[in-house]
Amino acid sequence: MAFFDVECGGAADPVMIWNSKEKEWFLYYTQRRGYMSTENTLWGHGTRIGIASSVDGRKWRYRGVCQGDGELTNSDRKVSWWAPEIICYKDTFHMFVTHVPEVYKTWSEGTRDIRHYISMDGINWEFQSVLSLSSSRCIDACVCRIGNLWYLWYKDETNGSYTYMASSCDLYNWQVLGVVNDDCSHEAPFVWKYDGKYWMIVDAWGEKGLRIYASKDGLKDWVYKCSLPGSHPAIYEINGRLFFVRHEEYAPGTMQTAIHISELMYKDGVFKKK
Questions:
Q1: How far apart are CA 123 and CA 53, in angstroms?
Q2: Per residue in 132-178, pLDDT tens?
Q3: Angstrom distance (rounded) from CA 29 to CA 16
Q4: DSSP letter string over the chain?
């Protein structure tokens, strides 16, 4: 399955969640401006968080962008929003999303932070806080519950572009625990539990691709296992099947990208596309 956002031309950084109130799958993504020139990085700034929904995960319909305070809706394109992470806990949706305070022509300019929003419907969002993390350039949140605590994994661009981790007992107050994966520079960590262990997939770019690691407890000792193609991934177990969500190039020579969803096979610690 592939989803291409005709409005922006650059659907990227996808995550997926079942919205029990609407009884549909909701797909959230960075709404890059893929139709713009590739001469600078304006196509990756001034972005919003797009939403698509589906009953069966095959046919998707565009639902617009996340609504909230003035900056989140970003109708004037003066800030940038990247890489949403969405979870639902006790009937409340939580979004942890990267915020860039301006629009830049290069990746090296400015600061980044991760912001927390909540929603009762998955569409309209209320700002909660800016997370205090390990530097002023933290992006790409992933949240997972292990035991009685919530854990947040993210990329720290100031400190090696490695994965750092923080913990929380309530999703609102976070304590930074430090670096957990410095195997190589990468971004977009995503963690899930499967086959009695925890897995982390990261985007290491180019020939290194999407690298997958395993950990017994999900907190330390991540060991590399295999790689997959694509960019900024997420993996979900649904009814005993594994689904691989990522964005890929849509039109060669442009910044146009589409979101792809396909099934994975798993055997002896190795994941492969089906």
A1: 11
A2: 999 999 999 999 999 999 999 999 999 999 999 999 999 999 999 99
A3: 9
A4: -EE--TTTEEEEEEEEEEETTTTEEEEEEEEEETTS-SSSSGGGSS-EEEEEEESSSSS-EEEEE-B-SHHHH-TT--SEEEEEEEEEETTEEEEEEEEESS--SSSSSS-BEEEEEEESSSSB-EEEEE---SSSBEEEEEEEEETTEEEEEEEETTTTTEEEEEEESSSSS-EEEEEEE-SS--EEEEEEEETTEEEEEEE--GGG-EEEEEESSSSS--EEEEEE-SEEEEEEEETTEEEEEEEEESSTTS--EEEEEEEEEEETTEEEE-
At position 223, the amino acid (one-letter code) is V
Q: Tell me the sheet residues that pair with 51.
A: 28
Q: Are 234 and 202 in contact (CB under 8 A)?
A: no
